[in-house]
């Protein structure tokens, strides 16, 4: 009986959704507002958006960014709401049930999980659209700490996600979990679990806990992608997701996939709230590697084709960033080029031309055209797109080890500010306990000159000492980076000698040390693409731009700094490092135990002997007598 | 061996004091010169043979830095030294000359106290002339105080330990001060010093017993002895508790207990040193770790009572042997521990002639002192050696220490035997004196 009823439930859900998307997709928020008057407690205006952003990169690569957004909406009538979000997750149409249950049972308010393979080249590719590009796995979550169970919930969360995504997330235990004080602020706008309070003062009253952990050594592969695809309403059967072919996705220079869950407001006054699940896949294809040609098309990149939009999606767009050529326009050809789908966003030097393809429109109702695959291709007239404008990211950071030998070393972080103005930034560096940091060796160089007093650069410093086998060291700095400057932070450390069981099987390869994260507010003009934030989706959709603005405003009011509401917080990830620790001889346990114990026994035995026996002169009467006795025996 | 000793020769009174000034002046100048060499002190301070996790000056600086900036210093895995040390260096660490001066003066103070201890011991032994003579030979008097002090002050181990700014020096000073005060029969200061040494590095708690033996030596009644012992115990505890309270006031937390004594006893920091335990616990299977930890830590302490019972007549030697046991079997031994017991050894110089393996011991010490830094370099920097190289040198050094302890204990037992049953004055010359053949039964 059970599977049948489940199937029925699903099919009705899908039907319901299609109906709702057909009829009322025009303005979801208005619909929700309307519903509020009729249904007092709860209505879930679920919605699903899919989007693909394609961007030719300066080095000839093609950058693709898939973004799938699912909303599970609720209208929080403050008088009737029972405080727990149980009703929110009582019924699932589009929102993946596995994620909903995880959020519910571990009281997670915000969840950000990113799997990344490869390293993002900031100086070649600029800033990514995805919020996180740190190599390996990064997981951070805001947990409700009402019942002081955040630690247990965090453990449960990592273990459950580990099972869900077939990854080693369960290794994010206390020894590598941290609680940043300045970085990784919550991105959601209100607190689902305490909606009895008005949105303006939710942050101050609910005890919440941020937990952050990363696994730099984690490899990302198909087994992680498959469960990720399963979270999508259309899976990879139709719509943009049908392009996701693991064989091609992992054959790239950079691959990153993520899920972000956060609570958001659906209207200006935050009367209608919803939980947003954003799934992203970011890849950088090396287009020219195959045949030397920089031309690409959807089918050449993904070896798949889109034959229809996802029927469950409210919007389904493909957006192409047109190359910013410095000379005459006709260096490339994008086909098909729709005159109505061409916009210019941003202004001044940040201007960006985009071409938008609405798949919903392309496949709307017409059954004959739906069998025709959507074709998109970019062709360059010359063999190499030379004349594109160079990218100069405002802030670039690098990190490296100094020193030699396996006893001690140094860590240096270099931050370049190419901007013409000072930038406030936050640096977060997490180092595992097997690096013993010496904070008194911390130095700051400004443009290669040692600063005696670095108060002007380092405004605030938060330092957590590592405890052996218990927790990592955390160094968090609130910085003021002067314009056109290079700041170098150095600190020295000792390498810890680990027990032989604590070494990985390939001990001489070394240990991966995770990236440092620099959170920088990048000034943005109205309508400009928001890098490093999933909000940019809304900006593309035009009508939601004001919504993003209002959200940002309310966030900043909560944080208490509403002076610079025109900024995006971009997180810049540095390189991960490989640390080689001194190794013992792994074949020696028995030898060492035997030899050490022998030496100790040598002392004990001799000392025992000396303490218990007395001297006698050889040949004296006593000894002779005893010898005789012995012989007699 | 003892060129300065002129027994019975009451020459010009100012010659010995001139010599004292010369020795101490030379020791002072040597240390000052070495401390002011560029890079040399920091190279020494980075040597694992000199600085251990619980005595490293670098870690002390880190602790002071954290304390100064409001980070609880014991809430982490770097700083494991006593809070009062933190307080002391909090005041002076910003002035390197002051820190250097403190190290030099403490080292010289140890030398001075050894000089004084020898003087008291000589006074004691002249009142007990019968020990000086046996058979038909007169035992030579021991080394003079100045020789003992110079042997300490110019011992390379002492010098590098001082230049490397190992904080074991302060613990050593407390130990020697305790012995001095014990010899001077000053209960209060003796117990305070031993409590301070215990507070700084825990193991010297054992020295309670020999110091009480010193305080109760001579012709005093059983009742008196008991009374003094009980008083000493109370004084020791009172001093220790007040030191702990003072520390609590300073750092405003009891976390220093686990930070300092937890690290000493549980051997959690497995940074290599000249001891036997680091590699043992790196290689040990996890489920046996606690068993061996308990056994090895007990092993350090179990000798205190039997040695004190057997050799109760020689409290100075008992202090030496207990310091040597500590310096060999503790979790984080360093050159500084060797400097202490090698400094205490000449106090019992009368036993030297009964020792059998002096040459071997000296060679083992030389061999390990030379090869330890080389093998360390081969393992950690060049990569052409592995951990076993350094461990092997640690074993050789440990064997050297063990043979030294066994040999000296044998020698003092042998001397004790000679005193109790002096050889007959007539008879076979081969059986005369200390080279006659004996056997242990």
The first-to-last residue Cα distance of chain B is: 33 Å
Radius of gyration of chain A: 30 Å
Basic shape of chain A: globular
Number of strands of chain B: 3
Number of strands of chain A: 26
Strand order of the largest sheet of chain B: 1-2
Physical arrangement of strands within the biggest beta sheet of chain A: 5-4-3-6-7-2-1-9-12-11
Content-based structural category of chain A: alpha+beta
Describe the overall structure.
- The complex is a heterodimer of chains A (633) and B (441).
- Chain A is α+β, with helices and mostly antiparallel strands.
- Chain A has three domains: 2-391 and 533-565, no CATH class; 395-524, Immunoglobulin-like; 590-632.
- In chain A, strand 1 (47-56) and strand 2 form a beta hairpin.
- In chain A, helix 3 (97-105) runs antiparallel to helix 5 (150-165).
- Chain A is globular.
- Chain A starts with a helix and ends with a helix.
- Chain B has one domain.
- A two-stranded antiparallel sheet of chain B has the order 1-2.
- Chain B starts with 13 loop residues before the first helix and ends with a strand.
- The model of chain B is unreliable at 1-13 (pLDDT under 50).
- Chains A and B meet through strand 17, helix 14, strand 26 and helix 15 of A and helix 3, helix 14, helix 15, helix 16 and helix 19 of B.
Short description:
The complex is a heterodimer of chains A (633) and B (441). Chain A is α+β, with helices and mostly antiparallel strands and 633 residues long.
Helix-strand blueprint:
The complex is a heterodimer of chains A (633) and B (441).
Chain A: H1 2-24, H2 28-38, E1 47-56, E2 62-75, H3 97-105, E3 108-117, H4 122-125, E4 136-144, H5 150-165, H6 202-205, E5 208-215, H7 222-230, H8 246-249, E6 254-265, E7 272-285, E8 296-297, H9 298-302, E9 315-321, E10 332-335, E11 342-345, E12 352-358, H10 359-362, H11 367-370, E13 377-380, E14 395-402, E15 408-417, E16 423-431, E17 435-446, E18 449-450, E19 458-464, E20 473-481, E21 485-495, E22 511-513, E23 516-523, H12 536-540, H13 545-559, E24 567-573, E25 577-579, H14 589-612, E26 615-617, H15 621-632
Parallel strand pairs in A: 1-9
Antiparallel strand pairs in A: 1-2, 2-7, 3-4, 3-6, 4-5, 6-7, 8-13, 9-12, 10-13, 11-12, 14-15, 15-21, 16-20, 16-23, 17-18, 17-21, 19-20, 22-25, 23-24
Helix pairs in contact in A: 3-5
Chain B: H1 14-35, H2 40-45, H3 57-68, H4 83-92, H5 96-127, H6 129-132, E1 133-134, E2 137-138, H7 145-153, H8 156-163, H9 168-183, H10 187-201, H11 208-215, H12 222-251, H13 256-266, H14 277-283, H15 286-301, H16 304-310, H17 315-329, H18 335-344, H19 358-382, H20 387-420, E3 438-440
